[in-house]
Design a protein that fits this description.
Blueprint (H helix, E strand, L loop, with lengths): L25 H16 L4 E3 L9 E4 L9 E19 L9 E14 L5 E7 H14 L10 H17 L1
Antiparallel strand pairs: 1-2, 2-3, 3-4, 4-5
The chain binds nickel (II) ion.
Length: about 170
């Protein structure tokens, strides 16, 4: 396994759209392992492949306290949703920034697991929010894109300053 470098906002590569995975093979399994290790080490509760500069539709999520409930999804798509929920979100690509984002309260997601088998999952609460946040990354969207232009400008400034200092 290997730790991967996480792209930091406002890196333009975070705004690219990821391509579907055609075949879940050993390369994809290895990538899922590396992404999981990178997420746990950060530490974070979710990571999408574009955040590690891989433009393929893969996400990993683990919202458990004990960090033993890894959910990996290849080609995830939301097939139905309802309700509205607003929670404070953060992102490994935007360290130190948290903001309220409005999302769907309940979602049903279809995806492939790391063996390539299709499954569906109903998610709500924190898990539902996290999955929506990660799928956004596959579409080139970062949570700060939902904020006002003024807030986005402030966050960009803060990130650029932090990058200069590091
Ligand atoms: Ni994120």
């Amino acid at each position: 396994m290997a730790l991967l470098d996480i792209l930091i906002y406002p890196d333009q590569r975070l705004h690219k759209i990821a391509k579907p995975v055609e075949k879940v093979d050993e390369r994809i399994k290895k990538l899922i392992e590396d992404m999981s290790e990178t997420m746990y080490q950060a530490p974070g509760i979710g990571l999408a492949a574009p955040q590690v500069n891989v433009l393929e539709r893969i996400i990993v999520v683990d919202i458990s306290e004990s960090k033993d409930s890894l959910l990996s999804m290849v080609n995830p798509e939301i097939v139905s949703s309802n309700g509205l929920a607003e929670h404070e979100e953060g992102c490994l690509s935007v360290p130190g920034v948290y903001a309220q984002v409005q999302r769907c309260e309940n979602i049903r997601v279809r995806a492939q697991d790391r063996e390539g088998n299709v499954f569906e999952l109903d998610a709500k609460g924190m898990l539902g929010i996290c999955i929506q946040h990660e799928i956004d990354h596959l579409d080139g969207k970062v949570f700060v894109d939902y904020l006002s232009h003024l807030k986005q400008a402030r966050i960009r400034k803060k990130m650029q300053k932090a990058l200069r200092l590091s």
